[in-house]
Specification:
Its main location: endoplasmic reticulum. The protein is α/β, with parallel strands linked by helices. 31% of the residues lie in helices and 22% in strands. It folds into 2 domains: 299 residues, Aminopeptidase, CATH 3.40.630; 189 residues, Glucose Oxidase, domain 1 (3-Layer(bba) Sandwich), CATH 3.50.30.30.
């Protein structure tokens, strides 16, 4: 997630937007149901433990969508279904993964196959070859020497001890700092840095193509992480026409560094490994889960308030904090609204997105199909009926505020909505800042009000985000309960307003 900090005349705009009285009795009903009769643990079991890893178009993703559709229907939501958003590509299943160093002594390694990697066609074994390729001229020294070889690539970075805690919550001063950001340029990347990144990516593609052409048997790559946690999420091969490549395993940096030190000191290193994977080519469409609570007001029920989070995950673990947590919260929020018997005036629609990890595909496809095309700025009739979208996708941490995405006109409204929640949202902040990397951006790109809540980090960046440790144990259930109450309150308040939320100006066609 990258933040773009903007300074806008918030105080001037605040005076132009009048807040409405909040229905305090309704908010108390939401709190009581969400905190005393929560179902987040049951939902978490279904989405995390029972569905398993939810890589887009995988069997685990399909299990999760079927559960969500049935559960939402059972709670009384209408039109619950999986909705195609466009072509995604192939699904992929990991059926076996094993690697160990066998010489100079035996040691099992921690490793995960890259997503959409090929199989090794049985067990492979042999000497490990470390490549030293810095330019295309270096290809020559390996030409004809890599047939059946096991290639190892060292990770960048070091493994010194860190004295920072893995799990943290925001302090009051940190939240206050978000509220008053320092202005800076929208991009922290210079043209030179972007050019270097593109060049490195293009060179990496050439190296992979060379290794594949030479017929290597396996690539072992050390990845970022420490203490057995692997940040493994590299996308490859999901597009239907992707050519076959070399099987790749991502392993702990400690494992690859061990082999490198041995090799550099003249000790021959051998490994044995097996990767067995399978593609799913039957249905290339991508799917979102959609359901709704129809509005009760005849004049407002055609207008929409949306809430959502991405349902897909990576494959190294069960995607508990990224992003079953967001889906658990959103499902619990609509359950609360139904269980309390509240009657939102506008239609409340929940969306659990697919394809987010490969580029926000599910939400972008949905927005294009329902509201408009960002490239041409051709808008649909539904565009004028969309009030707001609320997103959760920053882990398991409780809500501490909200990012306004530069929409200063909503600040006084959100301030009023947070006041009845002061007993469960402590030291909160509302910041004009943008935040990125998740599905609210698909709405914001068309100037539809789209918001991501500020959440306590907990272990998101250190232990769980795209890792092999993103399991049920990493969920903070009480935090999920709090989030569901906040989301349900914001969604209900949005649905009850006399007017839809104010919008930013439409972007220009680029």
């Amino acid at each position: 997630m990258q933040r773009k900090l903007l300074i806008l005349p918030a105080l001037l705009l605040a005076g132009m937007t009048l807040a409405q009285d909040v229905d305090l009795k309704a908010i108390e009903k939401i709190k009581k149901e969400g905190l005393e009769n929560s179902k987040v643990e049951e939902i978490a079991f279904q989405l995390v433990d029972k569905a398993g890893p939810r890589l887009s178009n995988s069997e685990g993703y399909e299990r999760a969508t079927k559960y969500a559709v049935k559960q939402l229907s059972d709670w009384g939501l209408e039109n619950a279904a999986t909705e195609p958003w466009g072509e995604f590509g192939r699904g992929w299943e990991m059926e076996k993964s094993y690697i160990a160093m066998t010489a100079p002594y035996y040691m099992p390694f921690i490793a995960i196959p890259k997503a959409w990697t090929e199989s090794t066609q049985g067990e492979v074994s042999g000497k490990v070859v470390f490549l030293d390729i810095k330019t295309e001229e270096d290809f020559a020294k390996y030409k004809g020497k890599l047939k059946g070889a096991i290639i190892a690539i060292k990770p960048s970075g070091t493994q010194e001890a860190t004295f920072e805690p893995d799990a943290v919550r925001y302090t009051a001063s940190e939240l206050h700092g978000m509220e008053h950001p320092v202005a800076r340029e929208n991009s922290t990347y210079t043209p030179e840095m972007l050019a270097q990144y593109r060049a490195a990516r293009e060179f990496g593609t050439k190296v992979s193509a060379f290794i594949a052409a030479e017929g290597a048997a396996l690539i072992i790559k050390g990845v970022n992480g420490r203490h057995g946690t692997l940040f493994t999420s590299s996308p490859r091969g999901y597009l239907k026409d992707t050519p076959e490549g070399i099987p790749e395993l991502e392993t702990a940096p400690e494992n690859v560094n061990l082999m490198a030190r041995l090799s550099e000191n003249g000790v021959e290193v051998e490994v044995e490994a097996e990767v067995k994977t399978r593609y799913r080519n039957e249905d290339l469409q991508g799917y979102n889960v959609i359901a709704e609570i129809p509005g009760s007001d005849p004049s407002l029920k055609s207008e929409i308030v949306m809430q959502g989070g991405h349902l897909d995950s990576w494959h190294g673990a069960n995607g508990a904090t990224d992003n079953a947590a967001g889906c658990i919260v959103m499902m619990e929020a609509v359950r609360i609204l139904k269980a309390t018997g509240l009657q939102p005036k506008r239609t409340v629609r929940i969306a659990l997105w697919g394809g987010e990890e490969q580029g926000l595909h599910g939400s972008r496809g949905y927005v294009k199909n329902h509201f408009g095309d960002r490239e041409t700025m051709e808008l649909t009739p539904e565009y004028e009926k969309m009030s707001a979208y609320y997103n959760i996708d920053n882990g398991t941490g409780r809500i501490r505020g909200i990012y306004l995405q530069g929409n200063a006109a909503v600040e006084p409204i959100f301030n009023e909505w947070f006041l009845p929640l002061d007993d469960i949202v402590d030291d909160r902040t509302i910041t004009i800042s943008n935040t990125g990397g998740t599905d609210h951006q698909s709405f914001d790109a068309l100037s539809l009000p789209g918001f991501q809540f500020i959440q306590d980090p907990i272990e998101y960046r250190t232990r769980t985000h795209h890792t092999n440790m993103d399991t049920f144990e990493r969920l903070e259930l009480d935090d999920l309960k709090q989030m569901a109450v906040v989301v349900a309150s914001f969604v209900y308040n949005t649905a009850q307003r006399d007017e839809m939320l104010p919008r930013k100006e439409l972007p220009k066609v680029e």
